């Protein structure tokens, strides 16, 4: 809410995944550059009077198309060296939602999730059924190779098992403990508040390296990979999917906000709860329906960016925030 | 908790699905008979010192094997007239969980979910990947025909579309409005508290008649189809899956219990919330970690049974409870 006019200030946040990103200049630049580009795309939708749900879809498409991130183009490879993707989108007015899981050969899984929301009586379609629906909707099937990047292949070679990937990316480390050197990446997501007071979220991912075929993480699941409700706000999560599901991380944050905590307090408390209760790590971006922003992560790094009142904020490391002016 | 000894009283509840069950004597008898049989199986596990998670798995296997219920043998048919099943199991100590969705040719999906929990680093496996895992574990693949009952075929003929099924089974009706005549059935589930203070839940379903291939409902999703935490209690849900997912019904009930509401108050409040927020219906069974029991449903009927301190309670209609003594 803009205090001077009483109008709602359009707001958007995106993340490029919370994980044990090593301290490499190129990696930092491409990740931060990617989230900054995506947040601008979503903000333009909002400033032009578009809805929160259109904004998060546009921002997440931008991240899916960017090979730097583990979603759409750039997704990790499973144990069979195949790409299986999960995505979700939700709007906070009537709590409408759509999701796909374990879908293959789709360039923009989040837009397919949007079609599930808009065109079916269902919320979640998985596997071959999701691909049958895509065909029905005229969504092109793309060859798997077009989604696979050299980085995804390299990473699959480096981390031969799922357990190894989890340990390297999400293990809770002591302060000063070395971050494992790797070329990983994680889930992307966006949350938005539009000028009419509608909130929305979207999350999209290729999952975790070397996962079993058919493995689905938290990302496409309402309450785990994200949640939104106009009466409260919106959340998108990232991190160790199995751990996030066990605590229903997104719904947990909503609960804290309902209890009166700020978006930042709710985000911090929920990430701490996940550390305490299931000893694993992740990150969240949050917007409250009053325009408050929150973000928190227990991994080494999470690329994020926000845009509100023509101010672009972004960061990668804990307690790091850069600001610049940005006008459409 | 037993007030006289300070010991924890083993407790189990099961449900056979909340839906617009018509008022037919045979249907009532088979449904109530089925949940009474299942709750006894689970109670025997508890009384013999077994764990809550073993008890809920045993009870749900019993319901999956019973052709009266829509889970395992007796599952409904999707739009392609095929059986695709979802199941989940969770224990409340470390929040470990396993689930399968859109799995075919498995007699006891909940036991496959248990294997996901016990034998993998994952929580949820879907579609062909879930069946590949079943093969790896030596779980037999059964011909689909062995899971299909004449009732499921009849129902599929009667209700040609998913939307029709939803309207008939879960639409919020005015008082005195006629219940549609049909031969439906729904999701099964169990919650338990063992003598060591561990809680668990399990839910299993064939989904909803005429669903799209690949459609997954709330049942296998942690926080929607159920939730449990030794610090609070356990919940299993049933009803209109898409609506349950949108409100994360199980996690919502946990939240109310954490706020101090009794198991019954939390269950009633959450079902009312679902009616208000997404205008659809369902049912829940709940046990708090102090042994309190709750159950609530907004559909016409829900077959349920509970066993605690050698007292077997059961019912089918709103505000109906029968009691009898039962000793192992």
UniProtKB/TrEMBL annotation, chains A, B:
Q: Which GO terms describe its molecular function?
A: asparaginase activity; beta-aspartyl-peptidase activity
* InterPro entries the UniProt entry points to: ASRGL1_meta, Ntn_hydrolases_N, Peptidase_T2
- Among the Pfam families in the record, one is Asparaginase_2
Catalysed reaction(s)? L-asparagine + H2O = L-aspartate + NH4(+); Cleavage of a beta-linked Asp residue from the N-terminus of a polypeptide
**Does this UniProt record's set of keywords contain Amino-acid biosynthesis?**
no
Lineage top rank: taxon: Eukaryota
Q: Which GO terms describe its cellular component?
A: cytoplasm
Keywords attached to this Swiss-Prot or TrEMBL record, sorted alphabetically, are: Autocatalytic cleavage, Hydrolase, Protease
GO biological process: what's one of them? proteolysis
Q: Give the family from UniProt.
A: Belongs to the Ntn-hydrolase family.
PANTHER family, from UniProt? ASPARAGINASE (EUROFUNG), L-ASPARAGINASE
From the Swiss-Prot or TrEMBL record, give the protein name. Answer: Uncharacterized protein
Q: What's the source species for this entry?
A: Owenia fusiformis (Polychaete worm)
């Amino acid at each position: 809410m803009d205090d001077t006019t009483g109008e709602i200030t359009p707001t958007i946040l995106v993340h490029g995944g919370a994980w044990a990103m090593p301290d490499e200049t190129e990696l930092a630049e491409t990740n931060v550059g990617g989230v900054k580009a995506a947040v601008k795309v979503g903000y333009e939708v909002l400033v032009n009077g578009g809805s929160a749900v259109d904004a998060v879809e546009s921002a997440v498409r931008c991240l899916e198309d960017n090979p730097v991130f583990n979603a759409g183009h750039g997704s990790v490879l499973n144990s069979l060296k195949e790409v299986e993707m999960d995505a979700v989108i939700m709007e906070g007015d009537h709590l409408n939602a759509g999701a796909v899981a374990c879908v293959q050969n789709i360039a923009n899984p989040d837009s397919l999730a949007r079609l599930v929301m808009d065109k079916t009586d269902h919320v979640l379609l998985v596997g071959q059924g999701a691909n049958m629906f895509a065909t029905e909707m005229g969504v092109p099937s793309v060859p798997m190779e077009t989604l696979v990047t050299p980085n995804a292949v390299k990473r699959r070679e480096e981390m031969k098992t799922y357990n190894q990937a989890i340990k390297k990316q999400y293990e809770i480390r002591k302060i000063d403990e070395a971050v494992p050197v790797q070329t990983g990446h994680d889930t992307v997501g966006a949350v938005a508040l539009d000028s009419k007071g509608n909130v929305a979220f979207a999350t999209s991912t290729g999952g975790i390296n070397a996962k079993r075929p058919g493995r689905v993480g938290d990302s496409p699941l309402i309450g785990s990979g994200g949640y939104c409700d106009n009466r409260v706000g919106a959340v998108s999560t990232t991190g160790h999917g199995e751990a996030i599901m066990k605590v229903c991380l997104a719904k947990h944050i909503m609960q804290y906000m309902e209890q009166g905590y700020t978006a930042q307090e709710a985000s911090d408390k929920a990430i701490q709860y996940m550390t305490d209760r299931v000893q694993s790590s992740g990150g969240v971006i949050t917007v409250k329906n009053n325009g408050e922003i929150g973000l928190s992560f227990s991994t080494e790094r999470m690329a994020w960016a926000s845009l509100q009142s023509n101010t672009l904020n972004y960061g990668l490391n804990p307690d790091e925030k850069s600001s610049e002016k940005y006008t459409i």
